[in-house]
Design a protein that fits this description.
heterodimer; A: mainly alpha; 3 helices; 33% helix; 4% strand; flat; B: alpha/beta; Amidase signature (AS) enzymes; eight-stranded mixed sheet; three-stranded mixed sheet; 11 strands; 37% helix
């Protein structure tokens, strides 16, 4: 199973990871190798089997819809690369 | 020497006031500095550790000792620690200081232990050799030309070299058990939901589980008692109290049925590894256990299934690293999409990017059914295999890893060869079961071999008790690497 250059670029864009042209071949090779391994899944018969999302089929617990966390905005934003007056700054989005 | 004692022994010596926590903590810090060539630590918190040791000494003097008062431990650098760097082995988080403690960190703090530092690991826990770390590979104390295993390689190397008596790890596909095996240690991956994942940086949320890496089963039980228990902040936390040491170590081996899956004892496994595993099973048989043949017929599908589910979950989890709220931010960004794409391209290493791309591919339109849904179906088939096998036995046994520790650099160019290391461990994560690796001998090169014990859901007690009783009869766990 091999993956095309076009597919690598499509997936890289979906994942928001820049892949430069000189890295393309390495990714193509690496991903194709993994996909060949993954293809072995198709040897396993799963007709009529329900997919399993949680290892013990346990439903996630719900809690009361109440505020439980204190306001820690300043502490949380200490880790941010760029903030101003409590807002996260990013490059221009709209022309 | 002080550092050769187990975690439990040190705890008791502190309680009897034979040593002080200040003295012990300083001794550990000195040894870490002396053996810095192992590269086992990413960050040391010397001032924090010495301050905590001083507090512990006061508590010990007034007789207020808790479970681990004054004992130095280390945390894998995947656990968030307030005010101390948490890098997850990545350039992405090179300068990240968490505003809060992980539940596991908080619980050890409440138990009185002294956090000495944060251990090296494969980047975002993706690796089986600790070679994907942005902070460089870690050496195996048994042979510095070999890997310590991964992803919890720093924790394993630190405990094996007696820099610290116990350390936390996390296990998504074998990341506690395989490094424990490669370094001659006892490593426990608890049942999924036993230990809180709050503040533990997520790789694959339906597989990740924290646990201890120690020199023996008694120490692992002590650490599990500190770590485990319900946490309302983790929606997947199981509502069961932390079991105490007496319960964890008190189950009988006599009458226990040990299941040997034929798929774990085939020719793909190194002959010396199988020999040592069989020898330790003979010891357990002598102690009154019965060996029965079982089968896990779908285990060959485990690796392919895991390498869809884990990357798929990772691609979703790691989307939070966008250069906006925390982590690395590219200086080369004209527009928002450049900021995302360049920050992620610069901040993540090769293996992490490869896994995000595979996961994104498996979840993308047109491929979801063939990959992700298929893998989730196989996951159920694998879980059912275990259920069927457990109708005939109490504990499943086999090798932890098909080989002993391999040379540094041997598998870095071939991701798929690296993935095959997890062949006996990752199905346990897929099924959410507890698994433990315990030392069972050495190969002719002098490298440790690990025996894996797999238990029924929430039955860590059978694993720890079996390992504990094996350790009363053998001394593999007491061997120490000559240079340390």
């Amino acid at each position: 199973m091999s993956i095309s250059e076009k597919d690598v670029l499509r997936v890289a864009h979906l994942a928001r990871i820049r892949v430069s042209s000189d890295e393309l071949e390495d990714y193509q090779e690496g991903l194709s190798g993994i996909l060949s391994l993954v293809e072995q899944m198709h040897d396993c018969d799963t007709d009529g089997v329900e997919p399993m999302a949680h290892p013990q089929d346990i439903q996630l617990r719900l809690r009361e819809d109440q505020v439980t966390e204190p306001d820690q905005r300043d502490a949380m934003q200490k880790s941010a690369p760029q903030v101003d007056e409590g807002l996260y700054l990013v490059p221009r989005v709209i022309e | 020497m002080l550092h050769e004692h187990t975690l439990t022994a040190l705890r008791d010596m502190l309680r009897r006031r034979e040593i002080s926590s200040t003295e012990l903590t300083q001794h550990c810090l000195d040894r870490i500095a002396k053996h810095s060539d192992l590269n086992a630590f990413v960050t040391l918190d010397e001032s924090g550790a010495m301050a905590a040791a001083a507090v512990a000494d006061k508590q010990l003097a007034s007789g207020e000792a808790d479970l681990l008062t004054g004992v130095p431990i280390a945390h894998k650098d995947i656990f968030c620690t307030r005010g101390v760097l948490t890098t997850c082995g990545s350039k992405m988080l090179e300068n990240f200081v968490s505003p809060y403690d992980a539940t596991v960190v908080e619980r050890f703090h409440q138990a009185g232990s002294v956090t000495i530092g944060k251990t090296n690991m494969d980047e975002f826990a993706m690796g089986s050799s600790n070679e994907t770390s942005f902070f460089g590979s870690v050496k195996n104390p048994w042979d510095p030309d070999r890997v310590p295993g991964g992803s919890s390689g720093g924790s394993a190397a630190a405990v094996a070299a007696c820099l610290v008596a116990g350390a936390t790890g996390t296990d998504t596909g074998g990341s506690i058990r395989q490094p424990a095996a490669f370094c001659g240690l006892t490593g426990l991956k608890p049942s999924y939901g036993r230990v809180s994942r709050y503040g533990m940086i997520a790789f694959a949320s339906s597989l990740d589980q924290g646990g201890p890496i120690t020199r023996n089963a008694e120490d692992a039980a002590l650490m599990l008692q500190c770590m485990a228990g319900f946490d309302p902040r983790d929606s997947t936390s199981i509502n069961a109290p932390a079991p105490d040491m007496a319960t964890l170590l008190g189950a009988q081996v006599r009458g226990l049925k040990l299941g040997l899956p034929k798929e774990f004892f085939d020719t793909s496994v190194d002959a010396e590894v199988l020999e040592k595993v069989r020898e330790s099973l003979a010891v357990l048989e002598r102690l009154g256990a019965t060996l029965v043949d079982v089968s896990l017929p779908n285990s060959p599908a485990g690796i392919p299934c895991y390498y869809v589910i884990a990357p798929a979950e990772a691609s979703s989890n790691l989307s939070r690293f966008d250069g906006v709220r925390f982590g690395h931010r590219s200086e080369h960004a004209e527009e928002l999409v450049d900021l995302y794409e360049n920050s992620r391209a610069e901040g993540f290493g090769e293996e992490v990017k490869r896994r995000i791309l595979i996961g994104t591919y498996a979840l993308s339109a047109g491929y979801y059914d063939a990959y992700y849904l298929k893998a989730q179906k196989i996951r159920r088939v694998i879980a059912q295999d275990f259920e069927t096998a457990f109708e005939q036995c109490d504990v499943i046994v086999g090798p932890t890893s098909p080989t002993t520790a391999f040379p540094l650099g041997a598998k870095t160019q071939n991701p798929v060869a690296m993935y095959l290391n997890d062949i006996f461990t990752n199905t346990v994560n897929l099924a959410g079961l507890p698994g433990l690796s315990v030392p069972c001998g050495f190969d002719t090169a002098g490298l440790p071999v690990g025996l894996q014990l797999i238990g029924k859901f929430m039955d860590e007690a059978s694993l720890l008790s079996t390992a504990h009783q094996l350790q009363q009869e053998t001394d593999w766990h007491q061997r120490m690497p000559a240079e340390y």
